Amino acid sequence: MNNSEILAVHKQKLEEFLKKLGLWEALVKGELKCHECGATISLDNIGMIIPFGKEIHFCCAKTDCIFRMKEFKSEPTNEAKT
Amino acid sequence: MRQRLKLILLILAIAICFFISLWYLGLNGLFTAIPSSLLIIVLTNLEWIGSLIASSYKVGRKFNFWFEKKAVEKRIENTIEAASKKINNEGVIVLPHGIDIKWVEPMERDAFLKEGKVVVCLESSYNEARNLARAMMLYVADDLIRESQRFINPRITRSLCFAIARKLLMLDKRLEALKCLNDEFIEPEANKERKIREYVMAMEKMDEQGYLSRILLREFSQLDAKLSPALTNSDAMSESETFTRFLGNFVQREREENVQLAHNRKVLKIDLMPIARSLLEFNVSNYIKAASISFDNGINTIYVLAWGFNIPWAKSAVKAIEGMGKYAKFEECTFPVVGAQGRFQSYLAVLMNISGRENIPPIDS
Fold first, then answer.
1. Is ipTM beyond 0.90?
2. Where are the extended beta strands (E) located within chain B?
3. pLDDT tens-digit profile of B316-335?
4. What pTM, to 2 d.p., does this model score?
């Protein structure tokens, strides 16, 4: 059985991870929004971090957003297009 | 029953192992009997051992972050692997892949963008239920009949994911995670869209009767093979919904209630043939006649269904239909189901049209 790989970041390491990406400040200030529903991303509701072309998107942990994001991420990225 | 039989066989194997070791080596035999018995226990309970290992990491989580990560990772991997194996054993491989959790290290923005992979946020191992519910949803949404998903109505796909994720958690008795899945994922969706609740309930009823994976998912899993290389197909999209309703009506019917037994559309051309004898009378010619009509209507698959004492009659009906030379038995199985009257055996045979008269609709691009 081939396995599907899920890349994950532990919540305890999230601060370090986002700091390295240069997005921690934005999270603390409440500037990050869910790409699908527009909800403000916080440590409690952060679901996924998605690289898309030259941008980084966030998705909250709501089912609806996860499903829509799944369709979104399966589309070709800008990089892939060029 | 199966569990009890497994336990008896295990005890027997250990007893034989002890007896042979003691008989052959005397008291020294104890030294070989104990490790070999342990080996037997490990080999026959791999899932339980996996779960034990996953729990054992929790001991060290206060001292080292490595244990914490392993506790999260192994719990998710073990639960999903064990439960997906059980569902795949029902006959159709609906979840073909296992799962590997890979922890990502902090990286620069450019490296993250270059890698281009989605990263999921997981909670600490103290919040196991939430982690399991979230990982289960992601896994099922990604892996469930993956190749055919593009032909299935998104509302049905979503309902299927909920029903399967619930089933997987129930199979592994993860009740807290199940509650979390209900409260955080399913309820908000079901409240927003009433039909999702109806479909999930219908799918659970199908599952109680053993038809979720054996009929619904079986038919859906074949859509890719039927319709590729099309990117999607509008008929399949709408029929995935009508077929779910059709099967839902069948499993939710009241006693003596007449429901439709044929779903004859462009893509999904299926007949259900429940076999029941009225009192002591069983007339196989009725079923031959019905199969003949199905054939004339271009039905591709007939599912012959029976319960309890009707199973031998169903087998003879299948044999008779095969004798017509129009349908061939593709597979058959018996499985236990629990109904209002207790536990009983259920039977299902899949008969396929052998004339190749499939009416596959034109491809949408």
1. no
2. 98-103, 119-122, 262-264, 269-274, 301-307, 327-339, 342-353
3. 999 999 998 999 999 999 99
4. 0.80
